Structures are given as structure tokens and as C-alpha cells.
């Protein structure tokens, strides 16, 4: 691989001889793409042969690999002796705070849970976040549905909370459910763990005639055409689908005028691998970045830049392997991603962000071009991530990165955030907006054809004081080794 500097020097000479320049350029492009195909063949031959023979492992992998995001975990032992549903109800009733009780959960609207002792100990969420606490104690691997007479079928088929985040996100992407912001395991003072869903609270307007029938038709059509599967023992004729309000599961969002179905727990997902494959097809063009490959991308040549978890499909980079390369560096430096907000500049499909969420990051905010950010939104939700937000737009020197942050991250200090600047410097330089973003540590990755790492660290240092903590090299996917470096921001003199 020729370094960026050397290439520029050769270019500056050849540019004086246009015919020769064109020949050398075409030869170099052919050479580089041949090199990529050979590399691909060596690294992915068994996987490519397997998928060519139609023996995909996806059928088994999605339930094992998803959701990628680790549930948030909070110890509320010091603020509440118990989260027993009876106690929660009594506490709220005594203070006249509104709450809603369903068969399997208690729902606390935003102003209610923020007024409880849980308010100060839970992480910051968007202002419109409500809290739905499962009535049955258990961690994220426990089933949501409570065992009751007449519920045998549902009990057998039901998903644990962890997998149910996929169903929630799927229904949200189809426009029939509110947004899920998180799944939290809360340990009370008696050391009992309760699982809660942090969900978008919807201000409602009255239902209109026909809302229930249209919703049921929409849900039935989703079941016919995709991975959604109804598990309720009573089927479509059960009271959860009866007019006028689907047993209080149907609401109308006053802001958008849309009807939403709030009990996603009547459903699970089946054959989700086919859905993920379809999704990968629809986002390949947006994710693709750099040279094309016939082997990976067929006639069009475009292929995924980042591997999608749960799907056995090679890509240019493997976020999972990349973060594994970071783990020992972070450990040696005593830097943890857990509980931090991570800012990912040029995030592509957001899948490095998904890996940060796997390590327990509190939130991930990513920036990329509008169509890429829209694809990232679909992919992140589809692999079970919820603690994220994205800004779509071209990154320019004048981009105010801090202005893109969601409200609940605006008060974060440098120690609470990590910057992810991976394979992006060569495309946008060191963005001046980095200075106004809160972060203490930067996870930096260079490019395959880079010069010495020190050159770039010195460039950054000229803009803002930083210190290089440790470095290494990483090689994954169809990519040659690149420098990685853990960089710490220093106080301004
Ligand atoms: C080489 S990829 C790196 C992606 C990701 N950081 C990673 O390492 O996996 C560069 C990403 O930056 C985005 N990008 C490049 N230039 C950009 C710009 N000017 N504005 C917004 N996004 C840009 C591309 O769309 C692409 O997703």
C-alpha cells in the first residue's frame, strides 16, 4: 500500500503529463481492486462458498447474537427497600401521582417516575421517557408475561425481556409502537432485580372511529408479510384487539395524529434472519464506502462497510473485532466505556456505536451523511439498540457538533464522554467542532495508507492540547492494518 503522502507526491509530478497520468491512474485502480479481491478471497473464502451454497447460519445466529446492546443496570438499594408493584402503587397513590396498571406491568409517566426515589439514580433519558416496570421480578432474561390460568400458550412462546426489545423496535420501525429508549435491570434494597422498559411517553388525543379496526388490519398484515407473530392465547379475536380501544392498548398520538399499539408483548418475532437479510440489502448502498468488489458486491460492486451483528455477511470492517482489539488498550489505561456517552463521528451504520452499547455505554450519538444516518437508525433499532441518537448532515469545518447533541446529554462533562474518531480524519480532517464537544478520551483510528501517527497527533495538538496514551495496529474485515491510538484531552493552559 502506497502512503497518502507518497501518492500525493507522485500525483504532483504526473499531473504535468495528462496522458501518462490517466494510464498510471487506471493501472493503479485496477491493481488496488485486484488486490482487494485476492484479499477478500483469502479472508472470506469459506463464508463466501457457504453462502453461495445457500447454507446460511443466520437462522441460528440472530437469537444468539441479538440484541447487541447490554441492558442498563442500576443499583437502587440505597433509595428504595423494594420495587414490589404493591409498594409502587401505594407510594404513587399517597402522593396523587398518576400511574397505569396493566396485567404484566406498571407504567409510570415521565413526571411520576422522576418524582420517585428512582428519579435521581436512573441515568438521564429524553424528557418524554416513561417507565414501564414488569410486575414479575426478574432480570432481562426473565419472561415479560406472567404465568396465569389460560395463558399457557403465551407463556411457552413468549420472549424474555432482552429479546422483546427487538419486537419493540421492529414495531416502532413499522410505525405502530412508540420508541423504546432502554431496558433497565433495577436492583432494590432487598437485592431483588426488576426489569423496566424506558419508553417514549405519548400525549394522547381521543381515538377516532375505526382506529381499532385499522390497527388490527395493519398488525395482521405485518404478521402475514414479515417476522411479527401473535402469541396471545385468544388470537385475533381476543379482547386486546376489540374495539373501541383494544383493551386500552390503542392510543392516538396527539402530536402526529397516529394510532399506536402499546402492548408489544402480545407478539414475538419469527424468521427474523430473513428480515435482517432484506434490511442489509436496503442499506448496502448507503453503507458502502471506498473501492468496490465483485466478490462481495456482485455486479454493482457495493458491499457493507460495517458487518451487521446477527447476520453472517462479510463487510469491509468488523466492528466487533475492532473493539476487541481496543479492549486490552483500554484496560491497561484504566479507561472504561461503561456508563459513558460515546460520540461517534462519521458513524456509518452506527455499528461501532452498537459495540460501545454492548460494553454498557450510557448513550451513543453518531454523525454521518443524512442517508447514511437514516440507514443507521434502521439498522441500530433492528439489532436491538435503543440508547442512541443520530445527526444526519455533511460534516464541515464549520459544523457545530455540540448543537446536534440531544437535550439529555447537554449537561455532560468531559469525564462522562468518549469520542470515537475512527477512519474519518482523512475525510474531514480534525473538525474544529471537536473542541466544543465534551470528551476526555478519544478512540482514534487512522487509515490504511496513512503516514506516521505522530504527524496527525501533532496536527490535533495544534488545535487543542492532547496527549497520546497508547497505540496499536488493527486489521479486520477486508482491510489492511491501521494505527489505533488512545488520546487524552488535556486542560488548556
Ligand atoms: C471510512 S468510513 C468510517 C466509518 C466508521 N467511523 C468506522 O470506522 O467504521 C467514513 C464514514 O464517514 C462518513 N463521511 C465521510 N465524509 C463525510 C462528511 N463530509 N460528512 C459526513 N459524513 C462523512 C461516510 O459516510 C462514512 O460512513
What descriptors fit this protein?
493 residues; 35% helix; globular; 2 domains; seven-stranded mixed β-sheet; binds S-adenosylmethionine; alpha/beta; six-stranded mixed β-sheet; Rossmann fold; 15 helices; single chain; 18% strand
Overview of the structural elements:
- It is a single chain.
- With 493 residues, this protein is α/β, with parallel strands linked by helices.
- It folds into two domains: 4-55 and 286-489, Rossmann fold, CATH 3.40.50; 70-265, no CATH class.
- Helices cover 35% and strands 18% of the residues.
- The strands form four sheets. Strands 14-13-12-15-16-18-17 form a seven-stranded mixed beta sheet, sandwiched between helices.
- The radius of gyration is 25 Å and the shape is globular.
- The mean pLDDT is 92.
- Bound molecules: S-adenosylmethionine.
- S-adenosylmethionine is lined by residues 289, 305-306, 317, 346-348, 352, 368-369, 372, 394-395, 422-424, 427-428.
Amino acid at each position: 500500500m502506497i502512503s497518502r503522502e507518497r501518492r500525493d507526491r507522485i500525483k504532483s509530478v504526473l499531473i504535468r503529463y495528462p496522458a501518462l497520468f490517466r494510464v498510471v491512474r487506471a493501472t493503479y485502480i485496477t491493481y488496488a481492486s485486484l488486490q482487494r479481491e485476492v484479499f477478500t478471497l483469502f479472508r472470506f473464502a469459506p463464508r463466501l462458498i457457504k453462502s453461495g451454497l445457500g447454507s446460511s447460519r443466520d437462522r441460528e445466529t440472530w437469537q444468539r447474537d441479538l440484541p447487541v446492546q447490554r441492558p442498563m443496570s442500576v443499583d437502587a438499594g440505597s433509595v428504595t427497600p423494594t420495587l414490589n408493584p404493591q409498594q409502587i402503587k401505594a407510594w404513587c397513590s399517597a402522593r396523587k401521582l398518576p400511574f397505569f396498571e396493566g396485567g404484566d406491568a406498571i407504567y409510570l409517566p415521565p413526571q411520576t417516575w422522576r418524582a420517585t426515589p428512582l428519579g435521581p439514580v436512573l441515568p438521564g433519558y429524553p424528557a418524554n421517557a416513561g417507565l414501564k416496570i414488569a410486575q414479575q421480578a426478574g432480570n432481562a432474561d426473565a419472561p415479560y408475561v406472567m404465568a396465569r390460568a389460560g395463558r399457557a400458550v403465551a407463556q411457552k412462546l413468549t420472549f424474555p425481556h432482552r429479546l422483546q426489545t427487538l419486537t419493540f423496535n421492529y414495531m416502532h420501525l413499522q410505525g405502530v409502537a412508540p420508541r423504546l429508549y432502554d431496558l433497565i435491570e433495577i436492583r432494590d434494597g432487598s437485592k431483588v432485580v426488576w426489569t423496566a422498559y424506558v419508553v417514549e411517553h405519548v400525549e394522547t388525543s381521543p381515538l377516532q372511529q375505526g382506529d381499532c379496526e385499522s390497527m388490527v388490519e395493519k398488525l395482521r398484515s405485518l404478521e402475514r408479510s414479515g417476522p411479527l407473530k401473535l402469541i396471545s392465547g385468544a388470537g385475533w379475536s381476543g379482547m386486546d384487539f376489540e374495539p373501541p380501544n383494544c383493551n386500552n392498548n390503542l392510543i392516538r398520538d396527539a402530536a402526529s395524529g397516529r394510532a399506536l399499539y402499546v402492548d408489544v408483548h402480545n407478539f414475538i418475532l419469527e424468521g427474523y434472519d430473513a428480515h435482517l437479510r432484506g434490511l442489509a440489502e436496503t442499506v448496502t448502498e448507503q453503507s458502502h464506502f471506498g473501492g468496490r468488489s465483485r466478490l462481495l458486491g456482485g455486479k454493482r460492486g457495493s458491499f457493507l462497510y460495517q458487518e451487521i451483528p446477527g447476520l453472517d455477511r462479510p463487510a469491509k470492517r468488523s466492528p466487533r473485532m475492532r473493539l476487541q482489539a481496543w479492549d486490552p488498550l483500554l484496560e491497561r489505561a484504566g479507561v472504561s466505556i461503561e456508563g459513558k456517552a460515546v460520540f461517534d463521528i462519521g458513524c456509518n451504520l452506527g455499528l461501532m456505536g452498537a459495540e460501545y452499547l454492548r460494553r454498557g455505554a450510557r448513550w451513543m450519538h453518531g454523525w454521518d451523511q443524512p442517508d447514511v444516518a437514516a440507514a443507521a437508525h434502521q439498522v441500530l433499532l433492528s439489532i436491538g439498540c435503543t440508547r442512541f441518537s443520530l445527526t444526519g448532515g455533511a460534516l464541515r469545518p464549520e459544523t457545530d457538533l455540540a448543537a446536534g447533541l440531544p437535550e439529555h446529554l447537554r449537561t455532560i462533562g468531559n469525564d462522562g464522554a468518549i469520542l470515537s474518531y475512527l477512519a474519518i480524519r482523512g475525510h474531514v480532517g480534525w473538525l474544529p467542532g471537536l473542541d466544543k464537544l465534551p470528551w476526555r478520551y478519544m478512540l482514534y483510528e487512522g487509515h490504511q495508507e496513512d503516514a506516521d501517527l505522530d504527524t496527525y497527533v501533532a496536527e490535533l495538538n495544534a488545535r487543542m492540547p492532547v496527549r497520546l496514551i497508547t497505540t496499536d495496529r488493527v486489521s479486520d474485515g477486508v482491510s489492511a492494518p491501521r494505527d489505533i491510538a488512545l488520546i487524552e484531552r488535556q486542560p488548556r493552559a
